[in-house]
Amino acid sequence: MAGIEVTSLHKRYPDGTVAVEHVDLSIGDGELFVMLGPSGCGKTTTLRAMAGLERQTSGDIHIGDTLVNDLPPAERDIAMVFQFYALYPHLKTRDNLAFPLRAEGMPKAEIRERVEEAARMMRLGPLLDRKPHRLSGGEQQRVALARALVRRPRAFLMDEPLTNLDAELRAETRTEIKHLQAQLGTTMVYVTHDQVEAMSLGHRIAILNKGRVEQVGTPLEVYDRPASLFCAAFIGSPPMNLFEVEVADGQLRTHGGLALAPPPGLRRDRPLVAGVRPEALEVTPAGTDGTVPGRVVSVEVLGDEIIYVVASGGRDVRVRMPPTTRFAAEAPVGLRHTGGTPPVYDSSTEELVA
Ligand code: ATP
Fold it and tell me: Does 249 sit in the ligand 1 pocket, CB within 6 Å?
């Protein structure tokens, strides 16, 4: 097993597109590390460079102690799983699993042992004698995962491996991957544009935007204190409310008059924006003490919670409330902040300042 170090990685494609700009990542041995970001942010390019499928323009990649810049994929001792299953259609599951081992010239008895172990881990026993066309999408993807497992690589690289599965199977396979990684303790780099997947899987998450790393942190760190306005707007569903704020009399206030808990040491010599999660706000009956007035614009009942959009202070504010609350559309209401100190950003640099 091995950690992965990416240093000053830069990738410019022949047509001039800069896909990755000076990316530094330090992925621990045994870590499940997620790269998250919108389409086109450079996740796949970074992962393919780690795998050796794409040559970086500059920068270094170490897997364990080995500088792998000049090593072909087969010599990097990694296994990759893609969004598309890429199984050999004419081979039964057991032969699909054995294929990479046979290619290495491994003795038959050892191949059998490894195939059986991987089949047990991915619960493929009943499927070993079927060809891919007799497997469901989810089963095919489990075979693809098992085929990565049999090689016992130093690291797994996964590029959106669950994209083609339906919601239920996605959640189920996600749990399996997480469990498997914990059991094996093998370093895994997992690329996704799905924040729920990232939050539920990652020990740490790197958020990428336009070829650069905006933040690296645990799921809670990136949720509680997004490092930039981009991260603040990207993480969370619905995302944070971003309010322009002013500091006056030791208070942090939005232009709509909503009082927020001010972070200590906040400088007031620049325009500021505070990020307030929908669950850090409360909708109350109109006129409640300590609230600002608003009007319910929409009510989205999600079963275990309700998302209210409230027009207040000349803008729409999203609020997450328990399902027991009953405010109707168009109702006059009050709005107040109930959460802790919000993260505050410099609106010109877009970076976290407090
Ligand atoms: P997605 O989630 O859509 O797969 P991504 O974050 O993985 O996106 P990349 O596939 O790494 O992003 O692409 C990063 C940028 O590089 C994009 O602007 C993309 O259009 C560009 N790009 C990718 N491959 C090539 C290529 N072979 N030639 C030119 N530009 C490319």
Answer: no
